[in-house]
Amino acid sequence: MPPRTSPSSSSPTDTQAAARAITPELREWIIAQAQAGFAGPVVLQSMLDAGWSEDVATYAMEHVLRAHLDGLDRARGKSAAAPDTAPDSAATAAPAVPEPDLSASPLRIDVGDREVEVLMAMAQPRIVLFGNLLSPEECDAIVAAAAPRLARSLTVATRTGGEEVNDDRTSDGMFFQRGENEVVRRLEERIARLVNWPVENGEGLQVLHYRPGAEYKPHYDYFDPKEPGTATILRRGGQRLATLVIYLNEPEQGGGTVFPDVQLEVAPRRGNAVFFSYDRADPRTGTLHGGSPVRAGSKWIATKWLREREFQ
Ligand code: PD2
Ligand code: ZN
Q: Structure pTM?
């Protein structure tokens, strides 16, 4: 039998509730049924018999199986757009998105030259809070290298594929080239090991500086497929799949990173980082997030966005 429903997920009022109903337990059960050779309608009927609403069951089946198949395609080095009929080697399935290995509920993850702490993990949306990603000295070194190069932040303009000043984002910012200096290179290698995603698929590290009053209003980090400029943007490495926001200092007040869909606020602690992933460009991922206004002091962060393919 499939895992049982929770009262809130058996009759959702929207697709976000449906997305939240996909627990790791349910995901594993659906994949196991598919691997055992049960046809979709049979699996669906088992879920309905166990009390799942039709909406949630259909959504969960589509979502879980698509993400699983994308993972298999990636593991075989193929694009999801060009599937083949090779037999499933499910045991070697790679996740479809960057993902830390938390299967053994580790308190720490060895990233080669450092032990990163796992402070909090949420399944849906996928959000993981890490501690000790950077030392205080490394944070200071990144700020010092970025400070002389700051300019008013631009955001990618999906209408045109270019960049524009955006009133929703009142910070100053800059981008490092990937591997531009020793500390950036070290950080990029750590991130690659932490979330099991190639360094080459990462955009250059972005550094942002928020003064008192500055904020980044809630937004999604993926590129909206409905916007005309998105096709141009996607030529450089495909969609964004995950974000890591790294705190380089501590504002005196304010400046948390908020996830309004799940009413979560992450405190900006120096050296810590919040990771979140989104397996499709859709609000149903629940990854709406923003930077709250800085009330006192200032805030420095570095953001790493991870793409589907090599980012050139
Ligand atoms: O500064 C933040 O907390 C923040 C919030 C939302 C950064 C970003 N998004 C980003 O860089 O995308
Ligand atoms: Zn963002």
A: 0.71
| 3-state secondary structure at position 244 | strand
Distance CA 44, CA 38 (A): 10
Ligand 1 interacting residues, C-beta cut-off 6 A: 208, 216, 221, 243, 245, 257, 289-291, 301, 303
What is the per-residue pLDDT across 252-310, written as a single tens digit (0 to 9) for each? 999 999 999 999 999 999 999 999 999 999 999 999 999 999 999 999 999 999 999 99
Q: What is the largest CA-CA distance in the chain?
A: 62
Pocket test for ligand 1, best of 246, 289, 304 (most atoms within 8 A of CB): 289
Q: Where on the phi/psi map is residue 98: left (φ > 0), alpha (ψ -120 to 50), or beta?
A: beta
Instruction: Mark residue 286 as left, alpha or beta (left: phi above 0; alpha: psi -120 to 50; beta: remaining).
Output: left
